[in-house]
Design brief:
The strands form two sheets. Strands 1, 2, 3, 6, 7, 8 and 9 form a seven-stranded mixed beta sheet that branches. The protein folds into two domains: about 100 residues; about 200 residues, Collagenase (Catalytic Domain), CATH 3.40.390.10. The protein is α/β, with parallel strands linked by helices and about 300 residues long. The chain is built from six helices and nine strands.
C-alpha cells in the first residue's frame, strides 16, 4: 500500500508536472508570435517614413520647377514689354516729325501758313439741312468735340455761331452763305453734302477740307471750310465720325496728310480719335502771332 501510494503520489506529481508542462508549452509560441508582430510593424513604419520622405522631396522638386517656370514666364513677359516699349517709342519718334503744310506741294508760296493766336474765338457755322434733326444734333456735338481737341492742342478758341445754309461750289472748292451774308474776318464753314453735289466725293472719299483764305504777307489763315458726305456720317459710328471730323479740321488748321498711323492726318478713316504727336508738332509750328495783316488771299 505504501508502495502503491507512493507510486500514486509520484504519478500525481508527474501528472502535475505534465499539466504544468502542457500549460506552459503554448506560452512559448505565443511569446514568439508577439515578438514577430512588433518587428514587422516596425519594418512597415520605416518603409512608410521612407515613402513619405520621397514624396516630400518630389513635392519640393515640383515646387522648385513651378517657381522656375513662373520666373521664366515673368522674364519673358518683361522682355516682351520692353520690346513693345522700344517699338512704341520708335513709332512716336517717327510720328513726331511726320507733318507738312497743306500748301507745301501745290502752293509753296503759302507753305507753313497757320492760324493766329488771337484771343478772340474763331466762329464756326455748319449747314445740317441735309440731315434729319436727330442726326443734325448729334453731328453738331461731334464737330464741337473735334474742335475742342484742336483747341486743346493749339490754344485757339472756337465758338459755335449756329446753323447756316451754304452753297457749295465744287469747281472753286468753296462754301458761301446762301443768304449772301458776308463772312466774318475769321471763320470756319462746315457742311454736310450729298455725294451727287460733288465730283470730289464718292467712292472712298467721305470728306474734304482746308484753308479758304490766307493773309499773303503773314501767312495767317483766316478762314477755312470742310464738307462731309451725308450718307457716310449717317451710317458711320460715332468714333468714325469723330475721326473724320478731326482729320478734315486738321486740314482747316493747315496740315497736309501724314504717313504714320499714329497721326490723325493719316488719310484713312478709322477708330483713331486723338491728335497725334506729328499733328500737334505740325500745327503748333504753323501758328502765327496775332497781328494786323495787309491783305488776305482767298482761294
Amino acid at each position: 500500500m505504501t508502495r502503491t501510494a507512493t507510486t500514486r503520489r509520484i504519478a500525481a506529481a508527474l501528472g502535475a508536472v505534465a499539466a504544468v508542462a502542457l500549460l506552459a508549452t503554448p506560452l512559448a509560441p505565443a511569446s514568439s508570435a508577439s515578438a514577430g508582430t512588433d518587428s514587422s510593424a516596425y519594418a512597415m513604419s520605416a518603409k512608410a517614413r521612407s515613402s513619405e520622405s520621397k514624396a516630400a522631396a518630389a513635392r519640393a522638386k515640383a515646387a522648385e520647377a513651378k517657381a522656375a517656370i513662373a520666373k521664366a514666364r515673368a522674364k519673358a513677359a518683361a522682355d516682351q514689354a520692353a520690346q513693345v516699349a522700344v517699338v512704341q517709342a520708335a513709332q512716336v519718334a517717327a510720328a513726331s516729325t511726320d507733318f507738312s503744310s497743306i500748301f507745301a506741294d501745290q502752293m509753296p508760296a503759302f507753305d507753313n501758313s497757320g492760324w493766329a493766336t488771337c484771343a478772340a474765338p474763331i466762329p464756326w457755322s455748319v449747314d445740317v439741312s441735309n440731315l434729319d434733326p436727330a442726326h443734325a444734333e448729334t453731328q453738331v456735338a461731334n464737330l464741337q468735340w473735334a474742335l475742342d481737341q484742336w483747341a486743346q492742342t493749339t490754344g485757339l478758341a472756337f465758338q459755335y455761331a449756329g446753323p447756316a445754309e451754304f452753297i457749295y461750289d465744287d469747281a472753286t472748292f468753296t462754301l458761301t452763305r446762301e443768304d449772301g451774308t458776308p463772312a466774318p474776318e475769321r471763320h470756319i464753314y462746315l457742311s454736310f453734302v450729298n455725294d451727287e453735289e460733288s465730283a470730289r466725293l464718292g467712292g472712298g472719299t467721305v470728306g474734304l477740307g482746308g484753308p479758304s483764305q490766307v493773309w499773303q504777307n503773314t501767312h495767317e489763315i483766316t478762314a477755312g471750310f470742310a464738307i462731309f458726305r451725308t450718307d457716310h456720317v449717317e451710317r458711320a459710328s460715332q468714333v468714325e465720325d469723330r475721326s473724320l471730323f478731326l482729320h478734315e479740321l486738321g486740314h482747316v488748321m493747315g496740315l497736309a496728310h501724314a504717313q504714320e498711323t499714329l497721326n490723325i492726318m493719316y488719310p484713312v478713316v478709322s477708330d483713331h480719335t486723338e491728335v497725334g504727336p506729328g499733328d500737334a508738332a505740325g500745327v503748333r509750328s504753323m501758328l502765327k502771332p496775332c497781328a494786323e495783316a495787309a491783305e488776305p488771299q482767298t482761294f
